[in-house]
Design brief:
Number of domains: 2
Order of helices and strands: HHHHHHH
Number of helices: 7
CATH superfamily of the largest domain: lambda repressor-like DNA-binding domains
Strand content: under 5%
């Protein structure tokens, strides 16, 4: 399976040794992962991703996250978790408040495009 470990490592100016140390493995194992000689399992992704400062899914080829779909900080994560437990009437109240404050484009549903 293709992955982006080498690309991400080089973009951050890290050596195989540095990533290996952070992922608690050898530089040779990191190199094998980069070359696809070792399967990039969930366990490896959970070890290597933090060493590169990325989310595990980012290690997979062609999976760069869209900035508009990824929480940028802990406050956004907390707000998303809170949003998910609100009932529909509470969500409508928040949407109305946002419209009142002039940020309706962020809460209005996108218009359907004509076919």
């Amino acid at each position: 399976m293709a992955n982006r470990i080498r690309e991400l490592r080089l973009a951050r100016g890290l050596t195989l040794e540095q990533v290996g140390a952070k992922a608690e493995t050898s530089p040779q194992q990191i190199q094998r992962l980069e070359k696809g000689e070792r399967r990039l399992t969930d366990d490896w992704m959970r070890r290597v991703a933090p060493a590169l400062g990325v989310a595990p899914a980012t290690l997979l080829a062609d999976t760069l996250p869209d900035a508009d779909r990824v929480a940028q900080n802990i406050e956004e994560v907390v707000l998303l978790r809170l949003w998910r437990v609100l009932d529909p009437s509470e969500k409508r109240w928040i949407a109305a408040l946002a419209r009142e404050k002039g940020i309706e484009t962020l809460v209005d549903k996108p218009k359907k495009r004509p076919a």
